[in-house]
Amino acid sequence: MKHSHLFIAISLAVSGLFIAGCDKKDKAADAAASQQQMPPAVVNVIPVQFQTVPLVQEFSGRTAAYEVADIRPQVTGVVDEILFPQGRMVQKGQPLYRISPENYQSSAGANQAAVQQAQANVETAKASYNNALANIESQKALLEQAQADVRRLKPLVAQQAISEQQYEQAMTQLKTAQAGLNSAQAAAQQAQANIASSQAAVATAQAQLSGSQLDISRTIVRSPISGVTERSSVTAGALVNANQANPLVTVSKIDPIYVDISQSSSELLKLKQQQAKGSIQAGTSTVELVFEDGSTYPVRGQLSLAEAKVEQDTGAVTLRAIFKNDNYMLLPGMYVKARLIQGLINNAVLLPQSAIMRTPKGETQVYIVDKNNKIQVRNVTIEGTYQGQWIVTDGLQSGDNVVAIGGAKVKPEQEVVSKPYVPTSSEGGAAPQAGGAPNQGQAPAAKSEMPKGPVAPQAQKSPEDDAAK
After folding, report:
1. What's the half-sphere exposure (Cβ side, CA atoms, 13 Å) at 95?
2. How far apart are alpha carbons 13 and 431 in whole angstroms?
3. What pLDDT is attached to residue 23?
């Protein structure tokens, strides 16, 4: 009896296992059948269109004043008054400070008296010279008379018509007249020298007077440029010294204003190499500024300078752009981001960000729908972004249909149904349209064509990244 019960129990257990196994097989078969009946996945594709795309780079920058003038006094004295509104606009030549002029006015008065005395000395020397000239003429007349007397008496003394003593007296008068002429001529030369000396003294006195007058004018400290003032470093009553080290105030011209941009020398070298190969055309000199809050400066600037050297400490090259700043929105020292169109990429393809995938190895890939409506993987090369879309420079061919939406739910060799990709307003940029590419060799002119912020490909991920992982 016991054996029969054991047999029955074993039979029931085996039957249960058989029934359960059959049930699992039936469920697997039903699942396979249902999977075969599921329709192919639907993906949205975008056809490859080659075009010329601007290569926009974004760099950090600092604003710098167009001109800077450190105002220092050129005379020593006490500041009587500050003549300008601090922190406001001043014009070139506008008075900024008045320094006490009393000492310089006193010196100017003394120098004016010295000029007048020197001019009087010139007149005295001229009068002496005129007297010397008159004396010369008188002495010449006496000499001529003495010479005539000697000529007249000489034959008479030979004839003993007159005495020797009379002749000797005539000779003495001749010598006296000659000496008188020589003395008069020497006096005239001395008077002439006195005139020259007095005139030199006049020139010296006038120079000193001019210096005093210049010092008086310098007691009014004026701005050499038009610009905005900083805070004054001195107040009224302060003693300032000529050419002191510390400026009284600094005036900065900020309209226009400079923006100094720093670019890696390796990036600049790569760009030049690409331009030399012809893969990238030369860009434009247009620069756009973005503030720290993400807003854009309404006026575009022009690149005006690229330094011909690399900073040893940073390995960077400084680029300088110039901007209009008539509303004084930009102030020296502000941190900004500068966007430059440094080149035009030939034969590039714009793809939405959702089309790009990355492998764990860092490779950049896209899905392609082939002519048999099956998914294929294609490795691509990316060169930044433009208008929120990836710039693909290699790996695609004309006629390829790239999966823009739906790549996360498919896998290679899977059959799919493809539909055209229609971008939405919330996506980074519009899909490229026929004829919508920038003209060959020209950068876009409209402000909207400057990207909202180029980001390196490694800095972004698409939903397909998670699927790939």
Report:
1. 12
2. 65
3. 55
First vs last Cα of the chain: how many Å apart?
Answer: 63
pTM: 0.59
Region class of 87: left (phi > 0), else alpha (psi between -120 and 50), else beta: left
Q: Are 87 and 74 in contact (CB under 8 A)?
A: no
What pLDDT, in 10s, does the model give residues 61-92? 999 999 999 999 999 999 999 999 998 999 99
C-beta of residue 208 within 8 angstroms of C-beta of residue 114: yes
Fold classified for 103-218? Helix Hairpins (1.10.287)
Q: What is the pLDDT of residues 112-165, one digit of tens each?
A: 998 999 899 888 888 888 988 888 888 888 888 888 888 887 888 777 777 888
Q: Widest CA span of the chain, in angstroms?
A: 215
- The CATH homologous superfamily to which domain 60-64+251-342 belongs is Efflux pump adaptor protein, beta barrel domain (2.40.30.170)
Domain parsing of the chain, residue ranges: 43-54+345-468, 60-64+251-342, 73-97+219-246, 103-218
What is the rounded average pLDDT of the residues 422-441?
A: 46
Task: Please spell the DSSP secondary structure of 373-418, one letter per residue.
Answer: SBEEEEE-EEEEEETTEEEEEES--TT-EEEEE-GGG--TT-BEEE
Tokens 């752009």 correspond to 321
What CATH number does the domain located at 73-97+219-246 have? 2.40.50.100
Fold of the CATH domain 43-54+345-468: 2.40.420
